[in-house]
Amino acid sequence: MQFGNIVVQGENLLLISGLLISYVMFYYGIKVLKIERNIMDLILNSFINGVLIWKFSYVVLHPNSVLQNPMTILYFNGGYVGVSMAIVFITVYTWLYVKKQNIPVVSYTRAMVPVYFGYFSTFAWIRVMENSQNYFIILQAIAAICFFIVASRVKAQKTLLQLLIWFHLIQFELAMYKKYFVNTGIVSKEVWLYGSLVIVFICISYWLERREREEVLEERNKGRGRKANQLALGVMVVSIAVSSIFNSQHEVGKVKSKSVLSTSLDSGKIGTNKGEIAPDFELRSITGDNIQLSDLRGKTVILNFWATWCPPCRAEMPEMQKFYENNKNNNVEILAVNLTNSERGPDAVNDFVKNKGVTFKVVLDEQGEIGNLYGAITIPTSYIIDKNGVIRDKYIGPMSYETMDRMISGVQ
């Protein structure tokens, strides 16, 4: 994300925001919600550690990359797998602490749910700032704000748990329809995450309701929590069915839909903004061949501007190579434009490419003209270009495998 002349990597912005919002929510819980300090200490510690686990889970998931280039820790995180690891840690840590300190579950729920929505709102609006044209992300952020406001005014445990269930059902629905809107052929990790959270919160809600009924022995309350949870589960099942029908109805015209979407984005204007046709160019590759951008029409292209002296570029290269190896047979191409005018010479580029085992196309911008044409002031800078040569997205900073996967899935 770029603020004037300052560029902050999206993942690092999430990390910094996560740590800051932890302290904001801590004082919000104490001053506004009037929650006991020991409960807010538990939430603060669990969420901070969860954010750190999410960020540094990359070390566990990609130890070889980290050993080869420790700088990757600064730029990447564990993605959805890291999120899952953080959720598991927070759950186990909270459970043990609550039992040890004899904290009432009702009091913890009263504090945790608004804080959770506060976290989600912060992260969602950061995503909106990164991609303000994605209406699904905007809807996710608006929903999070609304649920945060409601949860801050609710005290009943059952209602708060139901808010969690309905919130994640909404996020699940948005993720499902986002998947069909961009015509991806696989269920996204986002869909799996929200679907799993819905099931988890239904189970927690049911368990707490059952325990409460057994303790209070109020016959008149029997079945209410179960009916609410069954209704939520039923809505989820119906949502899956409706989304599946929606998908099957459009499967026959899938290729046509993609064409219409690309055509609507293609204004016919040549430029470097989203929806414009990427300016064509021809450069010499490190193998001595001349490569023209327009020759790659029919493939989804990651056009990447980089240099060997650039630390984030060096961290990004292994991720790009791995992504290329796994997707080169899926009409995906990577064209890496080296800003050779800023290098010691072409030999430095050849040595770097050889040492890193790069097999995708690398071309030399010896005069810096193409870099200037595409406004590659900060590197690495990458453009996502669809099969019709239309720019669909732009990313400033190093891209992880998951980031590339998400951006390419949004185009294909």
Task: Walk me through what this model shows.
InterPro entries: AhpC/TSA, Thioredoxin-like_sf, Thioredoxin_CS, Thioredoxin_domain, Thioredoxin_ResA/DsbE_sf. This is Cytochrome C biogenesis protein. The chain is α+β, with helices and mostly antiparallel strands. It has a domain at 276-410: Glutaredoxin. Helices cover 63% and strands 10% of the residues. The protein contains 15 helices and nine strands. It has helices spanning 10-31, 37-61, 63-68, 72-75, 79-101, 105-130, 135-153, 157-181, 189-216, 224-251, 254-265, 311-327, 346-356, 369-373, 401-409; strands at residues 2-3, 6-7, 282-285, 290-292, 300-306, 332-338, 361-364, 381-385, 391-396. The strands form two sheets. It has a seven-stranded mixed sheet with strand order 4-3-7-6-5-8-9, with helices on one face. A two-stranded antiparallel sheet has the order 1-2. The longest helix is centred in the middle third of the chain and has 28 residues, at 189-216. The protein is elongated and about 80 Å long.
Could you write a compact summary of the structure shown?
GO terms for molecular function: antioxidant activity; oxidoreductase activity. This protein has helices at 10-31, 37-61, 63-68, 72-75, 79-101, 105-130, 135-153, 157-181, 189-216, 224-251, 254-265, 311-327, 346-356, 369-373, 401-409, and strands at 2-3, 6-7, 282-285, 290-292, 300-306, 332-338, 361-364, 381-385, 391-396.
As residue ranges, the low-confidence spans are 1-8, 182-186, 244-266
Strand order of the largest sheet: 4-3-7-6-5-8-9
- What's the CATH superfamily of the domain at 276-410, by name? Glutaredoxin
Please count the beta strands (DSSP E, at least 2 residues each). Answer: 9
**H-E order:** EEHHHHHHHHHHHEEEHEHEHEEH
Measured between the Cα atoms of the first and last residue, the distance is: 24 Å
CATH architecture of the domain at 276-410: 3-Layer(aba) Sandwich
Mean pLDDT across all residues, rounded?
A: 80
Molecular shape: elongated
Discrete helix count: 15
**CATH level 3 topology of the domain at 276-410:** Glutaredoxin
Rounded radius of gyration (Å): 24 Å
Helix/strand class: alpha+beta
Let me know the largest β-sheet: 7 strands, mixed
Helicity level? 55-70%
GO molecular function, one term: oxidoreductase activity
Domain Thioredoxin: 272-412
Keywords: Disulfide bond, Membrane, Transmembrane, Transmembrane helix
Protein name: Cytochrome C biogenesis protein
